[in-house]
Write a structure and sequence with these properties.
Strand content: under 5%
Distance between the termini: 28 Å
CATH class: Mainly Alpha
Largest sheet: none
CATH architecture: Up-down Bundle
Structural class: mainly alpha
Shape: globular
Length: about 400
Amino acid sequence: MSSFQTDQRTTYQPTRISSALTIVAVVAVALNLRPALAAIGPVLDRIEAASGLTSTGTGLLTTLPVFLMGLGALAGSSLQRGIGERRGIALGAGIIALACIARLFWFSSVGLLASAAVSGIGIAAVQALMPGFIKRVFPLDAGRIMGLYSTGIMGGATLAAASAAGLSRHLGWETMLGLWGVPALLAVVVWHVSPPSEAHGEGAVSSVNAAPLWRSGRAWLLLFFFGVGTGAYTLVLAWLPPFYVELGRSEDTAGYLLAGLTLMEVVAGLVVSAVINRFPDRRGPLAAALFAILGGLVCLVTMPLALAFPAMLLLGLGIGALFPLSLIVTLDHAEGPVRAGQLTAFVQGGGYIIASIMPFAAGWLRSHSDNLSQAWVMMAVGIVLLLLLSLRFSPEKRIA
């Protein structure tokens, strides 16, 4: 029984139902945080041919929204104070919907980049506010709900990657990209009809006397860890399908490889959500996730065709576990929902800015060498560094 359920006889069943509905709303919103990015990779060659974008320019289709996710996350505290979590999350989902729908009518190079930027702003609003919302509404189960939220994000990427090539072939890539505005609009509706969050959780705890996060070395460590780890995700999301198309695989096959990888991310996210409470020391699961990513990158560098399936499996499981674990470890370091919101905003803000560099750098490498192997090597070096940094995430450490 949760501590905030003050009257078992009268509040247990309604709270249980309303909590379940709130979780459904959280997942519905999460499903729409990656299709605007994930649907591009499998049809990148078509977009380049039709829009005139270079490899560096198409890299910006992922880099730009991820960079804006970072800037938006840094403004999360202001957004929370200005319009609140629920309205801010609804606004973010609505912006994502409008950005996707705009691609139906404005699919020039300028239009694609503009819609990418706008979608990044919407995603940023949701990602800046949702962790604090979860910490407040589910104070005793934040790790599990964060795992479900992260799984929803990766589930949306799976659906987008798996359907991109087929829908583009039958409807055109412009329509395929624009259709992702429909589920985003549905998510806004689901979010609006979900029960008020005050019914489930406790009020915010003031952290007015807390020290600025930019003065905390551990906060910067968490930021860097999240940024490099998420960089592996953005790199694979943007460039794995084009990498396999260059090696002679069809767009459908490349899209299915990315979809299979993101499906493994969903599986890993569900596993993390189910078992994370058994690991108060997160360093063991972190090491397992990082070693899986490293193994997948080695497969891509050494034998990408022969080891395509092991690469997909290892990268999917590793990235899928690392993303929620990074957020959970961040929440572990915060005392109270307000501080959790501030810390996750700080970590995601700088982290997504770091992560945005990866797809752009890979696009630059591709335009100068026609070979993405160097990008996989670059990422492998980053993962080794994260393995060393993860040793410092002792469960006793907190940020005041």
